[in-house]
């Protein structure tokens, strides 16, 4: 039954102690991850990612003044008593001294240990996995998103590293943030905890993006997670700039920040240098570019996970409420706005190439009899149309203040007030955010139609971006079931209600109002940071919402604040 589990507080040290009896496969790597000394040559640690059944990407970076030839080794045990694969890679400043290797010719579903060597310097040891083939009874995925260095320590990454129920990590984007400077988002918090962004300005150039990635990689929690678990990744907006579309971004000003295409290219180059993801030439499908960044991962006969690219290959420009607010004066005009502006046809989110790949992958999964088809979505797809919070008695009526405004400037100031903006959206039943799937209802219906054509109207969405936990029961515009969704809070990014100044009591009331009055929302929480652990079995699964007690200090505890159970029900998936 869907519901809230008893709250369990687990200290970081207790979790480590508890893992000591979990067997050598768990205990030895955990001890390595707890090591305090990191060789300065490999100060950014190691990472693995983007696996298939016979290969996996291995990553590190070296501190060097010129070209460097780095040796990599892969073994069956952390003692490296028998090296299975090895080789050398030469790196230099042209790739920011990053090292990326496709370790191929590996057995499926196996666990390996890897390290890098430069002269006498040896990197930390990492653990990597290939995808399984054949029968698989269980799969544990940690869903992560929205790691903002300035807002706090990546304690949730540390908790993921030490979670014995996690097999792979799915990161759905906002792996870095582009903001910087004394007025940048989060910098006031950063100054109090010593985590100001580097460089100290908003990142625009290739050098800027490289420096920012380097900073994020030295967080202790990040290093632990990457060394422990193999990463499945997609990007969202902040890897380049806030709210991009194919022709620009909300947080890009050409007059002062130059050409958008050049900035985007710099951000993508740095991402591919600093992340354990396959280069296009390593993909089975040839002729793809880096910007076409989506993947299909098959986990034996149990599950398909397909990630999405929703920013740079097809997305239409976002609708801005301020551009249309003056014309929305009654229920009729609001309905026309929803239908003719937000719901206008041919406002895509994903590219035709991605649609073709996704439909084919879903059809193969259905034909193969895999019980679970999972979508790694950078943003929430659930229908989050804001309820009438004034009528519900949650917010004060803003319309007298709006009617009394004497100038466009005063109206703009009122529109910037989160209380006014949220109440206004609720009065007209408008989507919470137009940058998420709710701002692209035509594209969402296209997505659902695609899944039905493939025989897969039973999707499990694992989503990021919103800085809130979500459990959503999905349906299309005709009311037909479209699957279920679990969304994750930020690793460190704050919930929007708290960040907007509503206060803790009001934020809790807003969460409850969303769950009570949004038909697709089963439960939501914007009060915590953390991750979601999803365990898939043959017929049933469990989503555990894991919150960290703080991101302002490295000392933290974790708690499972809710568990939701789900199951197969013929051609559908539903909450149990």
UniProtKB/TrEMBL annotation:
Keyword Signal appears in the UniProt entry: yes
Keyword NAD on entry: no
Phospholipase D N-terminal domain mapped to chain residues: 44-130
Matches recorded under CDD domains: MPP_PhoD
Residues in the signal sequence: 1-30
Domain of life: Bacteria
Domain PhoD-like phosphatase metallophosphatase: 142-545
Alphabetically ordered keywords of this record: Signal
PROSITE patterns xref list: TAT
Pfam families linked to this entry: PhoD, PhoD_N
Name this protein carries in UniProt: Alkaline phosphatase
Organism: Novosphingobium silvae
Lineage: Bacteria, Pseudomonadati, Pseudomonadota, Alphaproteobacteria, Sphingomonadales
């Amino acid at each position: 039954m869907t519901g809230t589990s008893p709250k369990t507080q687990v200290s970081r040290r207790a979790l480590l102690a508890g893992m000591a009896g979990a067997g050598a496969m768990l205990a030895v790597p955990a001890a390595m991850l707890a090591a305090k000394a990191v060789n300065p040559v490999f100060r950014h640690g190691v990472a693995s990612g983007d696996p298939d059944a016979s290969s996996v990407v291995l990553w590190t970076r070296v501190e060097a003044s010129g070209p460097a030839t780095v040796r990599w080794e892969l073994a069956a045990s952390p003692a490296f008593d028998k090296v299975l694969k090895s080789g050398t890679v030469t790196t230099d400043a042209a790739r920011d001294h990053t090292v990326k290797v496709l370790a191929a010719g590996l057995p499926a579903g196996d666990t390996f240990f890897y390290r890098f060597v430069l002269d006498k310097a040896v990197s930390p040891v990492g653990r990597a996995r290939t995808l399984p083939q054949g029968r698989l009874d269980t799969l544990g995925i940690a869903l992560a998103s929205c790691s903002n260095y300035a807002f706090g320590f990546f304690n949730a990454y540390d908790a993921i590293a030490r979670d014995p129920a996690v097999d792979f990590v799915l990161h759905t984007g906002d792996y870095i943030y582009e903001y910087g400077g004394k007025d940048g988002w989060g910098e006031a918090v950063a100054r109090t905890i010593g985590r100001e962004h580097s460089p100290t300005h908003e990142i625009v150039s290739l050098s800027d993006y490289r420096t920012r990635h380097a900073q994020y990689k030295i967080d202790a929690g990040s290093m632990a997670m990457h060394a422990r678990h193999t990463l499945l990744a997609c990007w969202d907006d902040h890897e380049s700039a806030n709210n991009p579309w194919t022709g620009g971004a909300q947080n890009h000003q050409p007059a002062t920040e130059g050409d958008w295409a050049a900035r985007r290219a710099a951000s993508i180059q740095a991402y591919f240098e600093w992340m354990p993801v396959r280069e296009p030439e390593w993909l089975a499908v040839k002729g793809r570019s880096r910007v076409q960044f989506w993947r299909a991962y098959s986990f034996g006969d149990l599950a398909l996970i397909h990630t999405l690219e929703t920013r740079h290959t097809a997305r239409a420009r976002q609708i801005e409420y301020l551009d249309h607010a003056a014309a929305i004066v009654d229920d009729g005009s609001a309905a026309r706005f929803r239908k003719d502006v937000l719901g206008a046809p041919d406002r895509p989110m994903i590219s035709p190439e991605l649609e073709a790949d996704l439909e084919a992958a879903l059809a193969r999964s259905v034909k193969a009899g895999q019980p679970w088809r999972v979508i790694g979505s950078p943003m929430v797809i659930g229908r989050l149309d804001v309820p009438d919070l004034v009528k519900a008695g949650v917010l004060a009526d803003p319309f007298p203040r709006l009617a009394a405004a004497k100038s466009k400037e005063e109206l703009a100031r009122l529109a910037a007030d989160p209380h006014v903006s949220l109440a206004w959206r609720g009065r007209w039943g408008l989507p919470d955010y137009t940058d998420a799937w709710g701002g692209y209802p035509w594209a969402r219906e296209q997505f659902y139609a695609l899944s039905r054509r493939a025989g897969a109207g039973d999707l499990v969405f694992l989503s990021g971006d919103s800085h809130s936990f979500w459990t959503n029961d999905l349906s299309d515009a005709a009311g037909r079931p479209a699957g279920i969704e679990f969304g994750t809070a930020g690793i460190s990014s704050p919930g929007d209600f708290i960040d907007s100044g509503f206060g803790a009591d009001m934020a809790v009331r807003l969460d409850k109002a969303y769950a009570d009055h949004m038909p697709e929302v089963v439960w939501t929480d914007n009060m915590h940071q953390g991750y979601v652990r999803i365990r898939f079995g043959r017929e049933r699964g469990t989503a555990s919402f894991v919150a960290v007690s703080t991101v302002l200090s490295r000392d933290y505890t974790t708690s499972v604040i809710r568990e939701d159970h789900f199951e197969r029900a013929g051609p559908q998936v539903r909450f149990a």
